[in-house]
Amino acid sequence: MIITRFSIKHFMAVLVMCLGIVLLGGVSYMGMPRENFPDVKVPVITVTTFMTGANPTDVEISITVPLETALEGIEGLEELSSVSSEGMSLVSLEFDPKIETEVALSRIRDAVDKAKADLPPDIDEPIVKEFSLSGNIPVVVLNLIGTEGVALSQLHELAENIKDIMERIPGVLDVKLRGGREQVILVEVDPERLRFYKLPLAQVQMVLMSSNRNVSAGVAEGATTRIVMRAPGEFETPGDIFNLVVGTSPQGTPVYMRDIAMVRPSFEDEKSRARHYDFRASDGETPVNSYIEPQKSVSIEIMKRSGENLLALTEAVNKTIEELALSDKVDIITSLDVSKDVRILISDLKNSIGTALILVLFVIFIGLGARNAILVAMAIPFSMLISIICLSLFGFTLNMVVLFSLILALGMLVDNAIVIVENIYRHYSMGLSRPQAALKGTSEVAWPVITSTATTVGAFFPIIFWPGLMGEFMGFLPKTVIIVLVSSLFVALVINPTLCSLLMKRKKHWEKSVDTESERPTYRAVVLYGRFLEFILHRPFWTITTAGILLVLVISLYGVFGAGNEFFPTLDPNNILCSVKPPEGVSLEESDRLSRQMEDRIFGRPGSGYDQPVKNLKYASATVGLGGNVAMGEEGAGPIRSRLQFVDRDYRTESTSETVAEIRNRMEGLDRDGNRVTHPLYGAEFDTLTPQEGPPTGKPVSVDIFGEDLSRMTDVINDMKRIMSETEGVAKPTDNAATAQPTLEWSIDRARAGMFGLDQTTVANFLQLAVGGIRSGTFGHGDEEQDILFRMPEWHRTATGQLENVTIPTPMGGSVPITSVTTAKLVPGPVSINHYDQMRVLNAGAEVQPWIRADADVRASFQKKVEQYTFPPGITHRFGGAAEEEKKSTAFLMKAFFIAIFIISMVLVIQFNSILIPLIVLASVVLSLIGVFTGLLAFNLPFGIIMSGIGVISLAGVVVNNSIVLLDAIRQFQRKGHSVYDALVTAGMIRFRPVLLTATTTILGLVPMAFKINIDFANLSYQYNTDTSQYWQSMAVAIIFGLLLATLLTLGVVPALYLIYDRLKNWVNRTTNWSVAEEMDTVGAADEL
Q1: Low-confidence winner among 362-376, 406-420, 630-644, 983-997 (lowest mean pLDDT)
Q2: 446-481: buried (b, 16+ CB within 10 Å) or exposed (e) per residue?
Q3: Which residue ranges form the domains of the chain, and what is each CATH number?
Q4: For a surface tag, which of 167, 498, 550, 604 has the fewest beta carbons within 10 Å of its beta carbon?
Q5: d(CA 24, CA 333)
Q6: pLDDT digits (tens, 9 = 90+) for 47-81
Q7: Which residues of 374-404 are buried (b: 16+ CB within 10 A; e: fewer)?
């Protein structure tokens, strides 16, 4: 090889390059952002349009439909959905992940501009902006808790200051506060006093707002000076508002604000509440088993920008917390820190890499001996560091998928080095100098090494083109593996030969011959294999038949006794979000009552029917009202959330999946065994949300109902929820059908109002003043700035029937009852109207019970029942959520498998210059399925459509390498004149050790994942059932057992197939004039060239 000759000749340049690889690799590793899962950036753009006073139907017809029509044909658009609600249209567009966000934004803005001609003239300008789901999910949640004497208002004020500090940290997208009330300057206007002084309400409000501002008076130019003129007018003290002149009385005397209103510091109306539970025992780690009274708190949620380094951000947050000069009466508790899970995950994977490395090195030392093992082992750090450099240049983060890919490739990357170093040592032992042996040894096996690498790369290559969200997520695996394999090939052809030319040593008392086979540690195994091979070759048809029967038997056994199918692996959650969806229109008090019902059951409050909290609890934060998380649902008085943080893995008394199951049982009034304890949680809809493992795919069980008649669609969606409830394994279903919210509608009689000098705006403002108040500017400066709230006294305000007794001051000095100019009636409030692909849609979805891994089977059972349901005319359905992604992924993986087989076949045809020989090689791929299903049966694992599917595709590239090595040797011996029988036995015994060794390194690299064992090198301990092993176990087991069984069967079945092939070829030669032997001659001639 030219590149090898150049490297050996310029060895100093190679050594300098090695030093550069170490330094640059280390810097790249330290600088790579860390996160738990790949930060998949999917361009999601929203178009928001406001139309004041319009009901959802009007919004749908006037705004949403024209916009959808204009937007549907945009290039790269994958999903178009919308929500038409009271006064607002929200259109969401999801693009192909390969489309740049800026490109998508530009296309949408152009389409919206063209659609403006079809929109109503009185609407607000449509707002086009990017939406980020990750930007709405907190990565850190802090809770401020005060001791006795510290008011919530003080905590809220402190939280506001902390919020301002946190927002300045690089990488922080947003900070949200939950709980507490904002301080305001309250201006309470007495309507009776307004009437006495004959002052219009609008006039008082206008004076208040216009008087509270600084005015620039221009610039005075002098001969030598330039002076800026300014008239300050902002309120400095509440007394400024109190003494503000707001008009004149009928007698012409000034009327001050103090004459008609009370001005005082106060608080805004309560919109949210927050509580914090701490279930830690005195040691700070183990959970208590008794109810803990909550503490009122203010919650601070910190969101991360997409693509930012999560670990660096949380370190900055924690450092900021340490630097805060908090009072002894205030505690700040970190109730959620996602980076902790990420650190554990990365640590687990690094420990897995270390464990796999030790196992691989152990096998290399046993199989090759210390001299060659050291040279082979040096391929590992250099290949890994080159890969890290490339990954960093490509913008990859250090996440679970990338780290597992490194583990997967760890056992493969030494294969090339083993072949080349061993061949170099063989020539060196025969008397060549180190440089000559390095060059000749590498040149002899360079093309077979390149070919075997190409077949493995060819198996992973199609997965790169996986479309959609799942492809963006899992695409990191094939890209990383390919980078590692190409790096290992570079190391094997450049660095390994150079190091061998400088460092390789002979045994003492060496002779000019290679080591005899009897001196090798694997000699006894080779002899046993030779006897086994002779037995097989005397019974080739029996061998092939047995292998075929075994394949059918194992697959059949898995179909009967296997654990079923799963789409994507699920982990024991480290935290969950429990939510309650109350009826529309309930008050904050009622929402809080429902939240307390949920909390009492989960946390074991006496009298709730449960005498102790569920297991594994560490912290819990409950928010009610506007404290709800936007990412999980709509905001308002309704959202009720309790975020539960579980204790660390070492302190858990059961799996958290079991804990989640018990929580769901408690909401149904059941104990952990399903026995009735109390009544179900009534008056609201309960749900539990676990962190999404992998790309967002929606609910595991989901169905969309399409139609035009919302009433009939609602009936059908209720039937779908009933079917879900009747399907075994489905947790409590939910839907997105909005219920009517009661609305007190005030219709203004314009003509009658005009008789009293009133218009629609004045009446509407007075109603707002009477109910909630009007914000009329701000008071103070900088961090001390407070809103000025302009409203009626509490004794005069109400939101119910007493408004009928309210009178409105008129500009003419009198007052009229509000009922004289308006008509009030209670009507069902408007509902939101959802669209998907321009059709009205409702959705029902549900989680799968946490102890069930075969979610695909549960989904299939539900879908079968739905297909038996008779849908009304005009109503159609579609299975969405995970079902849609499962269907797409299954179709792609099947296609990718056959493309991989085609690529591998082409490489084999080029290598062997034959069409029939590759078929023998590909038989080993089929045989690997015996191992795949045997492993899944042995570990009682479901067949993962994603994980096991990728494992099977990966095996296609790995398994054929052993067959290539074996068949290449067989054909070489035949060309030297050996009989087919002698060639098979001799080649099999010679290639047994490298075949077994390369397979063993790959297998041992994945053993820690398969057996869920992880050695913690930092603490000199071991861990079992870590999150990462749960996630990747299915793929690791599939590859390990597939490769193990395929290797063992390859060593017997491939020779038997070749013997049958040779006999068939000879029979054809004897009975026809066409000589198949010409193929061998062609190959031999080609090899000689």
Answers
A1: 630-644
A2: bebbbbbbbbbbbbbbbbeebebbbbbbbbbbbbbb
A3: 1-31+369-511 (1.20.1640.10), 44-131 (3.30.70.1430), 203-223+239-264 (no CATH), 881-1089 (1.20.1640.10)
A4: 167
A5: 39
A6: 999 886 677 888 999 999 999 999 998 998 989 99
A7: bbbbbbbebbbbbbbbbbbeeebbbbbbbbb
